[in-house]
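As described in the Methods, two query proteins were run sequentially through the folding procedure within a single session, without resetting any intermediate state between them. The first query and its resulting structure tokens are shown here.
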Amino acid sequence: MTLIESGNKMAARLSVVDGAKGPGRNRDAKQERSRRRRQVLSEVVMQLVREKGFAGISINEVAERASISVGGLYRHIATKSDLLELVCDEINLGLLEEMKEAAAAQAGVSAKLEAAVRTYWMRHWECSAAILVAYREYPSFSEEAQQRYREEERRLAEYLGDLIRAGTILGEFREVDDRVLAYEIILLSHMRALKGYAFKDRERDDVFAEQLDLILSRLLPAAE
């Protein structure tokens, strides 16, 4: 072994002991930077959609607003429609986990369902402009993206259905078709995106309270 080879091995050992960046750490750091960049791009696209609609957005404008070169932007996307897929990915990112966490903090199935619905509903209320565009542009998404979004929505609806079934078993809720009601909850959460003109003069919390009351009226036993 040469002196140089011996020195290189010693340096490698010291880097592990000292916690210096190895290949794995570099890879993790790179992935985290990429994730943060995609999050920033998603926020920029959503803001531009609110301002001028998806059709009025250009790749150059997104790059400029995000303080990234056009070439750098194309490392994250291949076409303009990929920008919308990126936004859709961010809308549901970690959402199921947040719903479960919110529900876990409550006692009683009714309160758990309300917390889960509130978490889902508020996220989609804030992203309504992007959701509307996603409905319009869905046929242009890649097949892989369409399948991914359907699966994400299925898992979210399944969790809501689980809560509804639990409430029925425990006697807190009346018997209903939990699958149908779970998807009705999802659709209600998209109402601002689909019928935004109807909510322009309504406060967010007032709309949520009205829709939650509608959901619970299907579930809670009638007062004797």
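Immediately afterward, the second query was submitted; its sequence and tokens are:
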Amino acid sequence: MTLQWKNRGSLIRNAVGLGLGVGLLFAATPGIARDAQGEGCAWFSGVEHCPVGAAELSVTDEGLLIKSADGGPGGVSLHLEGASGWDAWLSPLEPDWNSRMLLTFIGARPDGTPELLERVVVARSKAENLGAIYVDPSVHGASTYTVRGYVGGQLAFERFGVAPVPEAFGGPAGPGDDAKFSRLVAFPGKWGSGHGVIAGPNGETCTEGVDFPFPRPVRFPDRSLSVAVDLVTFQPEGINPKAATLREVSLQGVGLESFTLQKVARTP
């Protein structure tokens, strides 16, 4: 089995058939930005990016810099209307005790209304003393996930029925704190990108992913280790999202003065 998402690298991919359209329906939902056209927005890699919270956006030689204007939580919302997938390469980050990243994926139903697909946090786990990927099962009601690992685009492992473990993470208060996050997998070192798709090349639906600059094993809640991989994806089991495309994806840093998107790819 080969992962054929294009432009794969240090990116975050939402294979959920994401549509991150954050309209007024989700204006009060943590991690979802309002449609913001114009003020403060920037076009980067052919995608409109708009600030979330106290963020200021600027294009530099290294990419799109997202910087907190007042030291508080800030982030960016990517408008992806009609996309089937999304990838974002970040300057690699290593989760520490005082910072985390919240990713929110929103899809668009056939009638155009938004659907919250997934909330994901990358933070440091107190229990594991490692970086960890947290999911919010309350978004869709899934109790288990299918977790897949890849090396160089080739499937290295596939594990069904992974039940995330409820666990609070530390650091300053920020968006998403009222959600019920659970640790899905832990990992050593840095992470470097995110991915998301509504309809993946191998039949994936409602799938997100995070990749690493270099291969490393991930640790499951039962403390077993995988083989070393450079990309891990996670798909909630037993759900049937109505969204047909991705509408919007947002990334919000808590305890981060700034972060940089090196490149973004939108899959039609």
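Confidence is low (pLDDT under 50) at residues 1-36. We note this only descriptively and draw no conclusion about the first query from it.
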